[in-house]
Amino acid sequence: MPVTAQRQAAFNGRLSFTSWPICWRVATLLAVQIVFSIVIIARPDIDTQLSAMFYRAGAGFPLSHDTRLRTLRWLGRAVPVTLAIFLSVLVIWRLARRQTFVTISDPVLAFMAASFALGPGLAVNAILKEYWGRSRPLATELFGGTAEFTPAWWPWGECRTNCSFVSGEASAAAVLIVFTVLCPQRYRLAMQIAVVIWMIAISLNRMAFGAHYFSDVVLGCLVTLTIVYALKALLIRAPAEA
């Protein structure tokens, strides 16, 4: 069989071997995003009421001054940045050596690096946060600021850069799910649960600081997870599934 035919057969085999369970996850995540978006657009007061739980007139968002929560916020940024740097070093090392790693296959490494680059990197921080001008809760008139409140997915707000929609730190927490592919099968569920708990903690922390609405953190996670599982369907064989 010619080399090109062998490669095509291997690629088709990879897709057929992994596509159904992963594609159902992607389809489910997309459906959840659509339903959630419809609800939150129809009921934008859900966002404002949940943010109001953390707001105190005259004091703003007092939990933003809590030392423990500020430490959590620092970890929410430092952990994914450190891991992204680590993955970048691995990719550069792999390309320079032209030899595969013993413990991480090329498809797994490509999947992990692409998830960071296309999820938190491109979709969230480069596109949504820069071009959907939603002002952060603490910047709006509802919570002591001057900007007008705008609902989720409304791209014509007053924010000019690094805006509220969607949450970059919630996205960065969600993308950590990629590391479950490195776990032995018996530990994988525990790792997934740990990542979900981390996602919830970081998301609530951003809301408590008045930096994001409920829809910002939820959609930040959902968009990222959709990209992650779509990439898995293309790059990872079934035994490495999370």
Quick gist of this model?
With 242 residues, the protein is mostly helical.
Descriptive report:
The structure is a single chain. The protein is mostly helical. It has one domain. The protein is built from seven helices and no strands. It has helices at residues 3-42, 45-52, 67-97, 106-131, 168-174, 185-208, 214-235. Helix 1 packs antiparallel against helix 7 (214-235), helix 4 (106-131) runs antiparallel to helix 5 and helix 5 (168-174) packs parallel to helix 7 (214-235). The model is unreliable at 1-18 (pLDDT under 50).
> Structural class of the secondary structure composition?
mainly alpha
Overall morphology: globular
- Helix count equals 7
Q: How many strand segments?
A: 0
Helix content: 55-70%
Tell me about the biggest sheet? none
Mean residue pLDDT: 91
Q: What is the first-to-last residue Cα distance?
A: 33 Å
Domains (count): 1
> What's the alpha carbon Rg, rounded to whole Å?
20 Å
**Weakly predicted, low-confidence segments:** 1-18
Beta-strand percent range: under 5%
H/E order of the elements? HHHHHHH
